[in-house]
Amino acid sequence: MRKEARRWGMTGRYLRWASITVPIILVLGITSGRLSNSSYGNEWFDALSKPGIMPPGWAFGVAWSILYVLMGLALAFILDARGAKGRGIAITLFLFQLALNLAWSPVFFGMHRIMLGLGLILAILLWATATSAIFWKIRPVAGALMLPYLAWLVFASALNWQIHKLNPNGVVILPQQNDARIIVQ
User: Fold this and answer.
1) Fewer CB atoms inside 10 A, N or C side of the chain?
2) Among candidate residues 40, 35, 33, 78, the one with its CA nearest the CA of residue 56
3) pLDDT in tens, 138-183
């Protein structure tokens, strides 16, 4: 068991890195979503027409939690790869794509910018693909841990595009007296 763990790069140092990276990335992701009131329960989002492939609301929390954990584990492998060629670039690429990722919920849910959100997802996909490729060169297991994230980004791009197609002008919610709302689509 120990030999197998070492073969995959799971040393005590790796576990220490993972105990830092996983919670930080998970908390950052959850915080970004909460601060921008992402998903169902957001009055603007609820008013949008949704595509048939839209998962139930709970699926997003589960999916993103798993993806953030996998991303944290992948980053820990790279942080543990001291002296590896390209390690600094890999960490920089990861942090850049993570910053873009954390910006998506505020753009889409907070600013109500559907097409800007799509452009952002496509940028995230580009940078996350580059990150995954360099991760793979440094530690193949780190690159493999990023694959579910890449697949989700492709799916999220399709969802974002379909939401735009169903709501080409977006939705505007105008406040009225006595807390009534008018929805303009």
Assistant:
1) N
2) 40
3) 999 999 999 999 999 999 999 999 999 999 988 776 665 565 554 5
Q: Is 174 helix (H, G, I), strand (E, B) or coil?
A: strand
Domain boundaries, the chain: 2-184
User: CA 145 to CA 148: how far, in whole Å?
Assistant: 7
2-184 maps to CATH 1.20.1260.100: yes
Distances (CA, A) of 111 to 107, 108, 145, 172, 173: 5, 6, 31, 11, 12
pLDDT in tens, 13-30: 999 999 999 999 999 999
Under 8 Å between Cβ of 71 and 98? yes
CB of 76 closer than 8 Å to CB of 26: no
Structure-token match 């839209």, residue found: 54
